[in-house]
Amino acid sequence: MDKGQILFVILMGWAVLIYGGLTFLIAKKKDLSLINGFINRSEEEKKYLMENGYVDAIGKLLTYSFFLFLLSYILGIFQVPYGVSIGIGMFLLVVMAGIVWINRYEVPAKRKKGYWINGSIAVVTIVFVAVLTGYGYVTTEITVTNDGITIDGMYGEELAWEEIQTVEMMDQAPTITARTNGFAMANQWKGRFLVEEYDSSVILFISGEQTPYLYIETDQDTIIFNRSTAEETEEMYQAITTYKDGET
User: Fold this and answer.
1) 15-62 pLDDT, tens digit each
2) Among 147, 134, 7, which residue's Cα sits nearest to residue 77?
3) H or E element that contains 123
4) Which is it for strands 202-207 and 222-225: parallel, antiparallel or unpaired?
């Protein structure tokens, strides 16, 4: 188990424990003080909500979403391909839909407003996550020109030839230990990450596990990327070294 996996087990495990504890206290122990805003309601509203099933609905939502969260954690431990991404996606959908669904048990005077507010939040959140995730899966375009290398898209870079010190093509993938500022989902890594092979963070543009990988050292950073096929990567390496060596 590498450092990244150990970190996932610890941090995600801690989150599962906290979410599970909250679910237990509300769903089983009926600790209503943990429900946002409940203790500030009037006694009449509290009685209506408890009799109408509002508290039980929150308990069910927490229980169902907790098991989805736990499932994501288990899939991540066993490193099931796309398991964590799918699990967290389902978790988010259930939570957002559940927040809207719970409004059916709200007091009549606040029900319509609750549908509009929570529904809008749910839609905006789901659309934002979907767009961000979709953008993260867009293939990174890398162009070699007379001026240098241009990496388009999320966390893109522009490298002038004078900045580039070395270019190597290797079959060994970097061992990722943590993300510092980037996108990481289902074998897609874009942005800054900590890897075992380097003391400081590196910039990754890696899609899948297709070898080989290009390692570019600049004055300030290390950039590692691959292409969809070995042939594409080799052609990119040849183009970069040709321009770098001034053979054009």
Assistant:
1) 999 999 999 999 999 999 999 999 999 999 999 999 999 999 999 999
2) 7
3) helix 108-137
4) parallel
